[in-house]
Amino acid sequence: MENRVKKYYAVGIVFTAVLGTLSHFFYQWSGENPLVAFFSPVNESTWEHMKLLFFPMLICSLFLSAQLRESLPSLPGALFFGNILGTMSIPVLFYTYSGILGRTVIAVDIAIFFAAVLTAWGTAWKLKESDRVYRCRMLLYGLTFLLFALFVFFTLRVPGLPLFQA
Fold first, then answer.
1. Buried b / exposed e across 112-145, counting CB within 10 Å, b at 16+?
2. How far apart are CA 116 and CA 123, in angstroms?
3. pLDDT per residue over 7-36, tens digit each?
């Protein structure tokens, strides 16, 4: 069972990294389709770049939860917690390094995305058998849904805050 779960996680990491990277271009490739805008970045803001991790990992989380929920009941909560933590690490890391340097560096921005992917999946791995995560699973489901809804809402109504500005 452990090897099967490791394989799923390895595939999840690669899937999230590849789909997240490609989704950076989906909105443009779609001819600026409004439906695609909900799930892919529509500009270069930090908020929009958080979608690069959130949605691919959400897809994986739903798939893995369906496959392994019976043998690992804490897994859905662990995956959702990892996704939230990884997604939130993007602005934290970005604003920390760019505040220190006083500028941005594209290579560091890209590295942050991959570090966030590893943070998300690593956290989900460590918590996959956690009783505490299992007890908090409804809260984690709610927070994941809230973040999903916020991505959709703020795509339609962009606030005038720096996080949302390109």
1. bbeebbebbbebbbebbeeeebbebbeebeeebe
2. 10
3. 999 999 999 999 999 999 999 999 999 999
pTM: 0.94
Q: Of 62, 93, 92, whose CA–CA distance to 79 is shortest?
A: 62
The CA-atom distances, in angstroms, between 132 and each of 73, 75, 81, 135, 136 are: 12, 12, 12, 5, 6
DSSP state of 43: S
pLDDT tens, position by position, 61-79: 999 999 888 889 999 999 9
Cα–Cα distances in angstroms (integers) from residue 113 to residues 24, 91, 116, 131, 148, in the given order: 11, 10, 5, 29, 18
Expressed in percent and rounded to 5, the helix, strand and coil fractions of the chain are: 80, 0, 20
